[in-house]
Design a protein that fits this description.
- The chain is an alpha/beta fold.
- The protein folds into two domains: 3-101, Beta-Lactamase, CATH 3.30.450; 107-317, P-loop containing nucleotide triphosphate hydrolases (Rossmann fold, 3-Layer(aba) Sandwich), CATH 3.40.50.300.
- The protein has 13 helices and 13 strands.
- A seven-stranded mixed beta sheet has the order 9-8-10-11-7-12-13, with helices on both faces.
- A hairpin with a 2-residue loop joins strand 2 (26-31) and strand 3.
- Helix 6 runs parallel beside helix 7 (210-221), helix 9 (251-261) packs antiparallel against helix 10 and helix 12 packs antiparallel against helix 13 (334-340).
- The radius of gyration is 21 Å and the shape is globular.
Amino acid sequence: MKKIDMIIQFSEKSNCSDIHITAGSGIVGRHYGVLRRLENPYSEEELNEIILSMISNEEDLKSYIAGRDLDFAYQSEVGLRCRVNLYHQKGKFVASLRIMGARIPKLEDMALPQDTLISLAEQPRGLVLVTGPTGSGKSTTLAAMIDYINRNRAEHIITVEDPTEFVYTEDKSMIHQREIGTDVESFASALRSALREDPDIILLGEMRDYETISAAITAAETGHLVFGTLHTISAAESIGRIIDVFPPHSQNQIRTQLAAVLRGVVSQQLLPRKDGDGRIAATEILVGNDAVANMIRQDKTHQLETAMQSGQAVGMHTLNMDLARLVQEGLITEEVAKKCSPTLNIKPEQSQI
């Protein structure tokens, strides 16, 4: 087994989500959100070789040695997939790996609001956003939703990612996975092409710019179910981020379009469990019902929190509501909850502390 595969396998078994390999310094893993230095039996030269061993073609190898960063997916001999970024610091090679795992978790087995997520996955068309900071499990949640569709419906699913993270095995659906830089030039060009490829569902690894967001909304308007991610930490911030990407003169129009196509926003953060056994997701869920659509259309996104507070019957809740529930159920500490949301006010009867 290659040395890099041994490092990945050890890290995965140690419940590390990320691995950082720095030539001349060593190996560090992120264990349940906390960085820990791992045992490093390798010299600087060996770490250089380990990092370079992940590069699969000569052109990328020359590009990296010349000083450019690289982004790609790597799969170990035992099927563990990683999202890899190679870069340099102080003239030395550095690798950052996000372990994706070999298995896509079933949506029904995840500690998430399943009824609402299943309802969003069963939408015939529209836009569904999964948001959160880096490392919050967005990709895993999206993969579970796509897997649910794959197991239950005959659809044509196109994923566009940079790089491809989870690899799906076709069940009832037909799935085409396109990777930026390998299969297509950009997210926007992949979306434009996708509209001519008879898709039912499109997954976008990241909605990062005006062109991509505009194309995603157009795809949702033309009868497709579009899943996308944003690096935002709340539903209201997600709506604002999309609208702010557009020039001021077209923002009223985009509010109207977004109000018509938005089916839901799932914002999530991973927090350490009280018992020390891993992490658990705290979520905020906005469902695109008539009231929410009207608030977006009229530029009243500051009222979305009130809509979520009063929309529990249709699966909505705020982050503070979910944090209070997690504290009440003894799953996280009050300290962790308040660190996640300084505005959280837990009543004495809600806390077990």
